[in-house]
Amino acid sequence: MFKLTGTVKLISETQQISEKFSKREFVISETSSMYPQDILFQATQDKCSLLDSVKVQDQIEVSFNLRGREWTSPTGEVKYFNSLEAWRIEKAGQGSAIPSDGPSPMSLGSEPVASMSASNNANSESTEESDDLPF
Fold it and tell me: Is residue 116 a part of any domain in this protein?
């Protein structure tokens, strides 16, 4: 799972590729580095509707999976393609409920990281003697 925050540059209409497959592409401008990047994502099937409430110029955070596949042309040439498949889109700074696959370190509470580390170290020191795990 990957995440990227950026500004929506383009949102295309949903394309019905086949009877059972639809996709919707969108472009995010990511400007955190010295060289800004325009990155193409796709939402497929029921995830196409995630873009219904998003507008061009919105700041969003996209959670996505990296997909790759092999394709052989009619002439026998083998090519490889990658796609970034979006599965969650949130307006930047809004943050939603904890994902169904569990919390990420960034989505836990509002306690500062330094305080969490200090309390974790204190807890691990007090239980270290009773813990027989090798790590």
Answer: no
